[in-house]
Write a structure and sequence with these properties.
By secondary structure, the protein is α+β, with helices and mostly antiparallel strands. The protein contains 4 helices and 5 strands, in the order αααββββαβ. The protein has helices at residues 2-52, 55-59, 67-82, 143-152, and strands spanning 85-90, 93-97, 105-117, 124-137, 157-166.
Length: 170
C-alpha cells in the first residue's frame, strides 16, 4: 500500500513539473526563433543590397538601390532561410506562405535615401537606409502548448525589425 502511495506522488510530481517545464521550453524555442528571424532579416538585406545597387552609382560613391531588385532578392533569400514560399509584394509588404514549422510571414520594407556631404570633397554621396519589419503568428512546438493556445485564443506574434544602411565607402 505504501508503494502505491509513493508511485502516486511520483506521478503527481511528474505532471506538476512537466506543467512548469513545458512553458519554459516553449519560451526557449520562441526566443531561438526570434534570433533566427533577426539574423535572416540581416542576411537577406545584405544579399539584396549587394545585388540591387547600380555599379555606375558605386563608382560615383552613391548607394542608390533599385527597389524592385532589392525586393526580389530579399524575398528569395528570406524564403530560402526559413523554407517558405515567396508569394510576392503588395505595396511595401512582402508575403510568404508558411510550412509545417512556421506560419505565414509578412515583411514590410521601407526605403529612405539620404544625401550626406563629404567632408573636404566636392561631391555629395547617397546613403540608402532600409527599415525591415517581419511578423508572423508563432507556431507552438509542444502539443500541450498548442492545445492551451487553441483554447485561450491568444496568438504570440513572432516579430523582429532591423534597420540596414547601404553606403559606399571611399
Amino acid at each position: 500500500m505504501g508503494e502505491i502511495k509513493i508511485f502516486g506522488y511520483i506521478i503527481v510530481a511528474t505532471l506538476f513539473l512537466s506543467a512548469i517545464v513545458m512553458p519554459l521550453v516553449e519560451i526557449f524555442f520562441a526566443y531561438r526563433e526570434r534570433l533566427m528571424l533577426s539574423d535572416a532579416l540581416y542576411n537577406s538585406c545584405r544579399v539584396a543590397a549587394e545585388a540591387s545597387i547600380n555599379y555606375w552609382d558605386i563608382s560615383n560613391i552613391n548607394a542608390a538601390v533599385y527597389e524592385h531588385a532589392f525586393d526580389e532578392n530579399f524575398g528569395n533569400t528570406f524564403a530560402t532561410s526559413f523554407g517558405l514560399s515567396y508569394l510576392g509584394k503588395t505595396g511595401n509588404t512582402l508575403k510568404f506562405k508558411g510550412n509545417e514549422a512556421y506560419n505565414d510571414f509578412e515583411v514590410v520594407l521601407l526605403f529612405e535615401e539620404k544625401y550626406s556631404e563629404s567632408h573636404g570633397a566636392s561631391y555629395d554621396k547617397t546613403i540608402t537606409s532600409v527599415s525591415v519589419e517581419a511578423t508572423s503568428p508563432y507556431k507552438y512546438k509542444i502539443s500541450f502548448m498548442q492545445s492551451l493556445n487553441d483554447n485561450a485564443h491568444y496568438d504570440y506574434l513572432l516579430r523582429s525589425e532591423r534597420k540596414y544602411f547601404i553606403e559606399v565607402f571611399n
